[in-house]
Amino acid sequence: MNLSEELDKIFEEANRLIGSSVDEADLDKNKNEYLGKKGKLTSVLKNLASLSIEEKKTVGQKANDLSKSLEEIVSKTRENLKTKGFKEQSEKEWFDVLRALGETEPGTLHPITKIQYEIEDIFTSMGFEIWDGPEVETDFNNFGALNFTDDHPARDMQDTFYLENGNLLRTHTSAIQVRALRKLKPPFKIIGPGRVFRYEEVDASHETSFYQIEGMVVGKDISAGNMLYTMEVLLSRVFEKEVKTRLRPGFFPFVEPAFELDINCQVCGGSGCSVCKQSGWLELMPCGLVHPNVFKLNGLDPKEWTGFAFGLGLDRLVMMKYGIHDIRYLHSGNLRFLKQF
Ligand code: DAH
């Protein structure tokens, strides 16, 4: 067999072997056997020295052509192996995203969210509009426009989270009544639910963040009687029974007169227990008639307009409704607690 015939034979063999590679590692091994430094094709070329110049040319040329063809076969085979690899992988490694899971647990609304929605329904059924406001407020919207003097203790750093730019995290949803007063044309009835922030020591009844619903009614000849009636409708619907109320004097710079609205204790029914400290009453909702200065500060004439406002603490209400003794549960993210609602 001359060198040229030998080359043909090697090529045929190489072609078959490379084509039958089972994976890329196998392919590399087979390639090496023919095209590597000590490969069969390479060693044939080493024997060229013994040939005549004429033969060197033709056989050399042929060997080069064959090695080029083999390189092409190698890269084609490599591509095929890759696709095959992906195909096999995708057949082996898959999962059905629509597969029905054995046990799924649907999420539930947080009790604060639930009570917020309930109260929103009650108020919208009485013709109130729902208003919103940002958690980061200006000092003016949170304090100034509500008739807080510059040296009012509530502005103190101990109560308020101030931001570097002079704004603050709103300490109450009363900032929402300011926004409504400035935007709406009276008469109007709004509630404004939201999260509020105070720099406070955390304990069973205090959190640095909690939820309120602000309410405001502005119109002609609005009286404390209108306010009380609205509160009683609200409470009897939240607690699903007649709730006794009483008003005590309170103090807030943006209402005059200001009241604290108490309800008869929902735990003992009014006979006295540890929750109501034997008094039979629970403090629930501060409220009052809109202070004339608040109208003035927000561009309305206090001789023309009257109104009432209230602030309802949602955490407190949830605690009363479900008999929860520690506010920290509400913000704990504890699923065993939350799943009960
Ligand atoms: N903003 C008050 C607070 O968080 C609560 C409040 C009191 C709201 C009296 C009112 C109100 O609208 O009339 O302490």
UniProtKB/TrEMBL annotation:
Keywords: Aminoacyl-tRNA synthetase, ATP-binding, Cytoplasm, Ligase, Magnesium, Metal-binding, Nucleotide-binding, Protein biosynthesis. It comes from the Bacteria. The keyword Nucleus does not apply. It catalyses: tRNA(Phe) + L-phenylalanine + ATP = L-phenylalanyl-tRNA(Phe) + AMP + diphosphate + H(+). It is an enzyme of class 6 (ligase). SUPFAM superfamilies: Class II aaRS and biotin synthetases (SSF55681), tRNA-binding arm (SSF46589). One of its GO terms (cellular component) is cytoplasm. GO terms for biological process: phenylalanyl-tRNA aminoacylation. Its cofactor is Mg(2+). Residues 113-340 form the Aminoacyl-transfer RNA synthetases class-II family profile domain. Mg(2+) binds at residue 256. PROSITE patterns: AA_TRNA_LIGASE_II. It is found in: Cytoplasm. It holds the Pfam family Phe_tRNA-synt_N. Binds 2 magnesium ions per tetramer. Its EC number is 6.1.1.20. InterPro entries: aa-tRNA-synth_II (IPR006195), aa-tRNA-synth_II/BPL/LPL (IPR045864), Phe-tRNA-synth_IIc_asu (IPR004529), Phe-tRNA_ligase_II_N (IPR004188), Phe_tRNA_ligase_alpha1_bac (IPR022911), Phenylalanyl-tRNA_Synthase (IPR002319), tRNA-bd_arm (IPR010978). Coiled coil: none annotated. One of its GO terms (molecular function) is tRNA binding. PANTHER family: PHENYLALANINE--TRNA LIGASE, MITOCHONDRIAL (PTHR11538:SF41), PHENYLALANYL-TRNA SYNTHETASE (PTHR11538). Tetramer of two alpha and two beta subunits. Belongs to the class-II aminoacyl-tRNA synthetase family. Phe-tRNA synthetase alpha subunit type 1 subfamily. This is Phenylalanine--tRNA ligase alpha subunit. It comes from Leptospira neocaledonica.
